[in-house]
Amino acid sequence: MSAGYDVAAIDGFADAQTSALCTQLVAVPFNARGFDADAFLKAMQAFDLKRFEGLLYGSGFEAQPELLHQLAQRMLVLGNQAAIVAQLKNPQIFFAALDQLEIACPKWHTSLPETLNNVLLKAVGGSGGGHIQYADDSADKPDYPHYFQQRIEGDAISVLFVADGQQVDVVGFNLQWVNEAPKAPFRFGGIASNADLSPSVKSQLRLAVEKLTRHFGLLGLNSLDAVISRHDEQVFVLELNPRLSASVDLYLDARPDLLECHVQSCCNTLPETSSVMMQTSRALTVVYAKEEVLINADFVWTEWVKDYPQMHGHGIKINAGEPICTVHATAINAWAAKQLVQERSTVLLKLLKQQN
User: Fold this and answer.
1) Is 34 among the domain residues?
2) What DSSP character marks residue 355?
3) How many domains does the chain have?
């Protein structure tokens, strides 16, 4: 990869780009709760672990940090350890820490509150937004760990940062949005880098990640999700993702040293880096199938499409609601990049429909 390492991967999608980048790739089942743990551990047997310097991980472990702990018994984990992930994804521990550190967050409850106006149901350890639902007093109680949280009307944002347990290097501030579906109103839609946020908002985000880094001893690349209230510029923290996130890809052109910074900071050494002034914004959006899509083997993907499925010489079927690929765009600012990437997503869906 661009950081100078050879890469092998275990992945839930095993898309064409990941396959092209890897010296070895194994696909394992992946669902709303993350990787199939037994399948993941079995897949590890296909690798000569002595050849690797360490394990970099993204989503798939939030709901089962014990799997990450088992992996750490086999090789060096370059990132936050399982105990920290478990704490950050435990709402009682995380929101208690926010209160202690005087960081604003929406009100939350372990049980269904009496007033359901703008109350959300969230899965403990959920990721990607697909697990978030509107609370409903007539709904059956979920059979998975969950909590309830007040919804704040405002713009969804995030901050990507590198930490060494004490110090923080803010990489960039991002605009985020959802791709609403009938049973997933807050499903992850996309993200745009270099968001034009006010000094007050940036200051609140920076202070929050500094406090949380020292409190939990965060290492490497992390991202903090938040929402800006539409009534004022108050920032409400929603969650902290103690792992490599989708926003990393948006900054690699401007910060080609980013993954190396992650590796070094995981060894408690935050590298000295020079700030990079980005003149444009990059955006990506996940394209989901609105209905069953049959992709022909000879379908030609445009240059702004990534993460599309491998064809293996034959066509492939994508079921309604499943992700197809990601679409990328660059523009003068985050709002323009968001608009362009959404327009391209619409174009791609039309092209896919025409070839059927």
Assistant:
1) yes
2) T
3) 2
SS3 208: helix
**Alpha carbon distance 343, 336 (integer Å):** 11
Of 69, 85, 101, the residue that ends a domain is 85
The tokens for 333 are: 């600012």
Taking the C-alpha atoms of residue 67 and residue 79, their distance in angstroms, rounded to an integer, is: 14
Helix then strand then coil, % of the chain, to nearest 5: 25, 30, 45
Share of the chain above pLDDT 90, in %: 81
74-130 pLDDT tens trace: 999 999 999 999 999 999 999 999 999 999 999 999 988 877 788 999 999 998 898
Of 55, 85, 115, the one marking the end of a domain is 85
310: tokens are 């491998």
The strand ranges marked E within the chain are 7-11, 22-27, 30-31, 34-35, 108-109, 119-123, 133-134, 146-150, 154-164, 168-178, 188-192, 219-229, 235-241, 281-288, 293-295, 305-306, 316-318, 323-331
Is the residue at 99 inside a domain?
no
* Joined tokens for residue 167: 């110090």
Distance CA 224, CA 173 (A): 10
pTM over 0.90: yes
Domain holding 60: CATH number? 3.40.50.20
Look at the block and give the residue holding tokens 């908002």: 201
How far apart CA 264 and CA 262 sit, in angstroms, is 6
Q: Taken in order 334, 335, 340, 342, is the CA torsion positive or negative? A: positive
Q: Considering the domain boundaries, does residue 234 fall inside one?
A: no
Which residues span the domain enclosing 68? 7-85
Tokens representing 197 are: 């946020």
User: Within a domain: residue 337?
Assistant: yes
